[in-house]
Structure formats: structure tokens, C-alpha cells
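Field log, afternoon session.

UNIT: design team B
ACTIVITY: writing a sequence onto a fixed backbone
BACKBONE:
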């Protein structure tokens, strides 16, 4: 009985140190302690097994070995020792697979209350198996990126992101605790950020080989767009898991990369401004790096926007007058309140649509937000239509 209590304390201590080391990279030494605690729990479990034949102890012994190796993998990753981390992957996978197989083959021979606990563990450990697959692919992708094999890195990160998405789906489908779902979503967003980053390496190779200035400019704008996308993924990952500081550091890296890209390519700031007119972060960085140049470009585009607004406004005003005139004519021929309400609703819809179209044309409304606004507008008009119909009856 005393051995069981020691094993439980060791595994709990391992879990606490693992969480501490994973959430903050500066606490990476905690991962080494977690590795040692889990290993002691595994060794003691097998020693106890020799004294009393117990399949439950054997199952957990291999699970503790898995956790021990996983903590060592994370430790090497924190030190950027990716080859060493990858070398432990097979042993880690073998131990978890063995624990799952032993559980599946022997749980029916165990007492009912233990079976219920092990059923929960079986679901959770399969989730860990998906996590391990995703981690392995991301380590391989990182190594490829370091070796400047950008296409290979991109493909591996793509596969890692798919595995991370499966984690999210598995957590949802098996109703795992909300903490696992939150971590899964954070991992997926983090993978998407790294995937975007690896794609920049592919484009940089194209920039080095091309001699066409216009094509080079197009590729540079593409890199800025991808880096901005990676920044957003990393920021969302941190917002999903605010206790994981690694995501915050990742978003800061991408923001710094954006600053370097913009500072290095001031000659094409007008093109960049036009391409990212609705992106506040890009404007903030440009203003911070060179306020004089930014204000000059910003002023030019504001003047152009006023002219654009005048020309667009004139067209939509003409269209509005024609539509309202038509609706007014129709309304004069209507006698029922229901028909009048329909006319009012249609007029309101047209006005709001015209406003949305003007904002979209001027670049003050993104395509995604424009479509969201239109969907919201239409759905609510149908609600008004239903209300007016009910009121009539």
C-alpha cells in the first residue's frame, strides 16, 4: 500500500512540473524534474508488479514511461535540440501504444469500478497519441526549416496542422474536459502560424531567383501578407491559451518580422499601403518606423478616397433615387398595411446594402466583414417580414 501512495505522489509531482515547464519556456528545467519523477513512478510500478501480479499497475507503468519520455522531448525542444527530441519519439510512442494495448486486452478482467476509470483513460490516451503524432511532425518540420528545405517543411507543417485539427475534433466528439479542447485549439492555431511561416521560406527562394522587379514586388507583398496571417494565428492561439507564454512570444516574433520587412522595403510602401489599407497593424508599424513618409502616403490616399467617395456616391445616389422613385410609385398603388410594410423593409434593405457597398468599395470594410454584414442584414429583414406577416393576421 505504501508503494502505491509513493507512485501516486511521484506521478502527481511529475504532472505539476510538466505543466509548469510547458506553460513557460523559462521554466524548462521543470521538464527535467518531471521526466525524473515519471521515470521513478514507472520503475517503482514495475517493481511492485513483481511482488503482486496486477495488470492495472503494469498498464500505468508503461504510461508513466511514456510521460517520462515526453517530458524529455519537451526539454530538448526548449533547448532547441531537435535531433535529440526526435530520437526519443519512437520509445515514447512504443510505451504509449503498449499501455493502450494492455488496457484494451485486460480491462475486462478487472473490477467494474476500475474498468470505468480505465475506459476514461483509454479515451484520453488516444487523444495523447494524436498529440504525439502532431508533435513529431512539427519537430521534423522545424528541422527541415533550419536546413532550408522549405517545401519539405511546409508539407510537414501541413500534415502537423491536420493532426492538430483531428485533436480538436476528437476532443469535441469524445466530450473531453474543456481544458483539452482549449489546448487543442491553441495547438492547431500555433501549427497554422508555423505553417504560414514556412511558406515565407518558399517565397524567399523565388525572390532570390527572379529578375523581374514587378514580380519581386508582388512576392514581397505576399510575404508580408503571410507573416501578418501567422501573427494573427499566434495571437489567437495565445488568446485561446493565455497561460501558454510560448504563443505570445511567437506572435511577437512575427510582429518583429513584419517590422523588419516594412523597414527593408520602404520603396514599395505605397503598394503596401494600398494592399493593406484595412490592416491597422501594418499602418501602425509604418507610422512608427517613418512617420513623415507614412503621413505623406496616408494623406495622398485620403485625398483620393474623397474623390472616389464623390464619384461612387454620385452613382449610388442616382441608383437610390431611381429605386426609391420606383418603390414610391408601387407604394401609391398599394392599399394594404402589409404591402406598405414590405415596401418599407425593402427600402431599408436597399439603403443598408448601398452603405455596405460604399464601404467595401472604399476599402473600409473587408470582404469577410462585408459578407457577414450582408448575411446579417438579409436574415434580420426576413425576421421583420415574418413579424409584419404575423401582425397582419
Amino acid at each position: 500500500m505504501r508503494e502505491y501512495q509513493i507512485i501516486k505522489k511521484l506521478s502527481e509531482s511529475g504532472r505539476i512540473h510538466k505543466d509548469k515547464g510547458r506553460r513557460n519556456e523559462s521554466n524548462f528545467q521543470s521538464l527535467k524534474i518531471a521526466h525524473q519523477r515519471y521515470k521513478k513512478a514507472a520503475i517503482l510500478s514495475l517493481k511492485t508488479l513483481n511482488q503482486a501480479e496486477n495488470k492495472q499497475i503494469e498498464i500505468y507503468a508503461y504510461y508513466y514511461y511514456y510521460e517520462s519520455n515526453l517530458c524529455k522531448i519537451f526539454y530538448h525542444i526548449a533547448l532547441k535540440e531537435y535531433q535529440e527530441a526526435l530520437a526519443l519519439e519512437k520509445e515514447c510512442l512504443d510505451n504509449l501504444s503498449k499501455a493502450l494495448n494492455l488496457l484494451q486486452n485486460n480491462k475486462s478482467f478487472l473490477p467494474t469500478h476500475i474498468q470505468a476509470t480505465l475506459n476514461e483513460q483509454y479515451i484520453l490516451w488516444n487523444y495523447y497519441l494524436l498529440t504525439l503524432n502532431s508533435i513529431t511532425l512539427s519537430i521534423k518540420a522545424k528541422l527541415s526549416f533550419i536546413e532550408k528545405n522549405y517545401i519539405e517543411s511546409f508539407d510537414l507543417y501541413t500534415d502537423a496542422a491536420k493532426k492538430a485539427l483531428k485533436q480538436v475534433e476528437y476532443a469535441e466528439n469524445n466530450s473531453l474536459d474543456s481544458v483539452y479542447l482549449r489546448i487543442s485549439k491553441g495547438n492547431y492555431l500555433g501549427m497554422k502560424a508555423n505553417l504560414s511561416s514556412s511558406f515565407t521560406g518558399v517565397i524567399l527562394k523565388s525572390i532570390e531567383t527572379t529578375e523581374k522587379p514587378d514580380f519581386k514586388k508582388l512576392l514581397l507583398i505576399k510575404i508580408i501578407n503571410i507573416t501578418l496571417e501567422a501573427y494573427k494565428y499566434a495571437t489567437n492561439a495565445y488568446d485561446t491559451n493565455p497561460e501558454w507564454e510560448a504563443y505570445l512570444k511567437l506572435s511577437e516574433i512575427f510582429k518583429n518580422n513584419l517590422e523588419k520587412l516594412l523597414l527593408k522595403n520602404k520603396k514599395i510602401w505605397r503598394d503596401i499601403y494600398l494592399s493593406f489599407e484595412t490592416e491597422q497593424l501594418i499602418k501602425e508599424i509604418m507610422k512608427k518606423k517613418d512617420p513623415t513618409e507614412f503621413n505623406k502616403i496616408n494623406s495622398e490616399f485620403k485625398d483620393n478616397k474623397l474623390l472616389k467617395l464623390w464619384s461612387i456616391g454620385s452613382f449610388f445616389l442616382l441608383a437610390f433615387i431611381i429605386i426609391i422613385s420606383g418603390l414610391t410609385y408601387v407604394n401609391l398603388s398599394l392599399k394594404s398595411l402589409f404591402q406598405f410594410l414590405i415596401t418599407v423593409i425593402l427600402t431599408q434593405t436597399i439603403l443598408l446594402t448601398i452603405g455596405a457597398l460604399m464601404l467595401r468599395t472604399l476599402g473600409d470594410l473587408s470582404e469577410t466583414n462585408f459578407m457577414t454584414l450582408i448575411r446579417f442584414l438579409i436574415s434580420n429583414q426576413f425576421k421583420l417580414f415574418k413579424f409584419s406577416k404575423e401582425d397582419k393576421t
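LOG NOTE: The two ends are 76 Å apart (CA to CA).
NEXT ACTIVITY: expression trials, pending approval
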